[in-house]
Amino acid sequence: xxxxxxxxxxxxxxxxxxxxxxxxxxxxxxxxxxxxxxxxxxxxxxxxxxxxxxxxxxxxxxxxxxxxxxxxxxxxxxxxxxxxxxxxxxxxxxxxxxxxxxxxxxxxxxxxxxxxxxxxxxxxxxxxxxxxxxxxxxxxxxxxxxxxxxxxxxxxxxxxxxxxx
Length: 165
Hints:
Keywords: Membrane, Transmembrane, Transmembrane helix. This is DUF1648 domain-containing protein. Pfam families: DUF1648 (PF07853). The chain is mainly alpha-helical. It has one domain. The protein contains four helices and two strands, in the order H-E-E-H-H-H. A two-stranded antiparallel ribbon has the order 1-2. Strand 1 and strand 2 form a beta hairpin. The chain starts with 12 loop residues before the first helix and ends with a helix.
């Protein structure tokens, strides 16, 4: 296997905007939890069935689990963004196309990070609203919509990768 060229990629204004929005989202969800935590009941939903109904409850401290997992995923993806030369591509990476391909790959990671953050923040908000009785269930469309967005994004960027060959 040939070694792919190593190039420094500069983040675009759009990528910096996504990173900023994601950072605000994560900060916002942690501040939100700090404010609502004292008023949460002792039990919060921790699992939902396919119909969006709560099928498992846990200690209210579990409200922190999803944001903490999300931050870990965000951090891992942020580290990955810095080394696009180590990604697998659908096309052969050459000196001629490396800059285009790396820019596309880094943009993909930026978009995915933001989509994941939005889903985790929204789900945390839903968990709180169910716990305090404002909602009775999650929508059955939450997970299918999230997966459609994620796989749609992957499809769009894979198509772009082939076009940028």
